[in-house]
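Posting this for the archive.
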Amino acid sequence: MAVTGNGNRDESGPGPLAGLRVVELAGIGPGPFAAMLLADLGADVVRVDRPGGGGLAVDPAYDLTNRGKRSVLVDLKSADGPARVLDLVERADVLVEGFRPGVAERLGVGPADCHARNPRLVYGRMTGWGQQGPLAQTAGHDIAYIAVTGALGMIGNPGEPPAVPANLVGDYAGGSLYLVIGVLAALQHARTTGTGQVVDAAIVDGTAHLTAMIHGMMAAGGWQDRRGANLLDGGCPFYGTYETSDGGYMAVGALEQQFYDTFTELLGIADRAPARKDLARWGELREVVAARFRTRTREEWTAVFEGTDACVAPVLSLREAPHHPHLAARGTFTDFGGITQPAPAPRFSATPSAVTGGPARPGAHTESVAADWDVPALLPKDV
């Protein structure tokens, strides 16, 4: 437990953000994940949950995006709800919200209200479409946001519908991670100048930004604007996945010549593989590679390629991944509260981070937050 500059106790965890105070207005998807990342890095994250719950029907005991946080219950639609949140804001460094544009303002906890109480506050806004634009007030989910940016259209086999990458590309990569980057950059500015600001993190903006290299390759004539026809989208026979004899899959990424040479030698096709640079024979090369992979099981091929520079790995399921020898040796996954889950990332030499608490149950930490943040108004009237 850390002690803040005002002498109050702080439930920060270990990590480089120890001592940082974050208010999270409860939402779903990328907002909670961004706040979880801040908590993973040591911030004291207080989630303001609404009475009666809300969001997706996930048992709070298993909602890992709320790990390491504390929760208080506040009804923002009640007469004193906004004032109680603003009391927290006055003592916070960061606020994270994921309402539609204008909702926080109508509830009395928008940027102007918050900055009137705390000019240094970094106000992080997480939306799909952004705060402005023709679709800003429109509902949406990850799949729609990545669809309009061109990212979804890149993924999948030619002649088939685009493959949906869960909600990893939009919600979390294009959304949560960009919000965290923005918040950390704005914190640096606030600590230098004493002035906070609003961070407008839109999933469409972040996802589009992720495609920067592809746009450059397309401008240079090195990328075709269609699925399954390029070096990194499965169009290349030495960068893709292949089925094994037992129905498993191996992932191949032997792009560079020296890695490709090792790959074809270990696969046993070096003497009959068509020239890798002959795009007209890529189809033939793919058939040769596929036929060879079908002769052994995934486990057998893993043993062949493990520890080599062939750039080949088994395609594991979510349940299998924590048991991979390399991930196990690094502690990439951890067990906390009886749940196997990804460990905090990235890693720090001087301020290592760790999972410090399970998913926050709604309202479970009202008394500790009221004491640590010196906000007695959070307590029920009869306490």
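The chain is about 35% helix and 15% strand. Residues 1-9 have pLDDT under 50 and may be disordered.
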